[in-house]
Amino acid sequence: MKKLLVIFSCLLFPLWLQAEQNWKAVLRYDKQTAKADLAQHLRKYATQDSRSQLYATVSPSTKQQAAFAKNLAKELKHIGASNVQVFKTGIVIADIPSTLKKPAPVLALIAHIDTPPQTRAQEPQSHPKYVSGNIVLDQANHINLTEENSTQLLRAHGHDFLTSNGTAAFGADSKAGLSIVMTLADYLLGHPALQHGLIKIVLLPDAPSHAGADALDISSLGADFAYVLDGSDVGEIATGNFGGRLFTAVFDGQRDIPLGQAISANFADNLLMASDFHTLLPRHARPETTSAKQGYITVDNIVTDANRSTVTGHLRAFTDTDLQNLSNQVTRAFNTVKAMYPKRTGAELTFTDQFSNAEKQIPSAFVQFTETALRQEDIQPKRISVRNNTDFAVLTIRGLPAVGIFTGVFHGSEPLEYADVDIMEASLRSLLTAVLTANNLPVSAQ
Question: How many domains does the chain have?
């Protein structure tokens, strides 16, 4: 009878591995070990400078990113990843081979290797098992994380944190996401009995300009769906983003005449036209006066060259209707200025679409599948829309359906930046569950 039970258990072992509610018990997954691995990765990466340039048009935009990419490729080879490649663009791609005997959807796990220009490579400070009160970052200058300036702390009692030294961000944005992807890759490669399809590891440079995402060859990557590790609080799944539109207003006047005769001449001050146009744009629709899903209008530059003044700016909104409403407000301000200056010699307003909200292009089955993976880990999913254009949207619009996944980073790119290691671990578990159940995800959902 005992022999039969042993044989029966052996036969069921592969089934247990595929049962999402049992994989941690079968593998004796230890949360504390996972947290230690995640923290170790983040500490290591934070000490390596990989700052990018904000408005890069080529990738990688810095030598530091190129060097970091090579180091990450070596690490991927060391842990056993296959087909590790480093491209001239600074992109790193590697495979975690399928352990299934049948075809399955190919998932891409995507993280950024860069950090914003204002970050400084440093050894992050460790703050284990937070209870309450202030977290001291810089005692000499009285720089602290508090439950007033960081309300997330109110929900994080008992959590472990890695923080900056209080003088500059340490790069948790985006290296917490990178740490999650690399820890997961190491875990999957170290547990070959786990049943999963082909996983593509994709590490991208130059997140602010999307130059890395733009350079990624999606067709040769061959992924069906992607997770971009670039989010914040636990459970957040980024599925929506701002749509963007540029505007350019040109005002032609006549300023090159003797100013003492302006009252009786065809004097028309194009610089004043540009100033009035800027002033007439609604204050209630500016970036600093809007939040959540409210769109905004902002002027980026005003340039005057002799008798011509040019105003450039951009609009952001989550829906086409809201984007058009903002465009209409810009048009009204422009027309008002035209009427105010009958002696002007010319005026022209143009709009140029930049990008759209990718939400409708993400297959609903993929989003629902992701939410199910989170719930299986007792995490309540929360769909969010981000107030920028991020890489999950860029990739989705380019043909690779993607969503953003939380990484536990708060005050990203600021001196108060910190990473909640417990949330990083929750992200790791959620992705592992998604990877192990992705064979249930229909590729036809695209």
Answer: 2
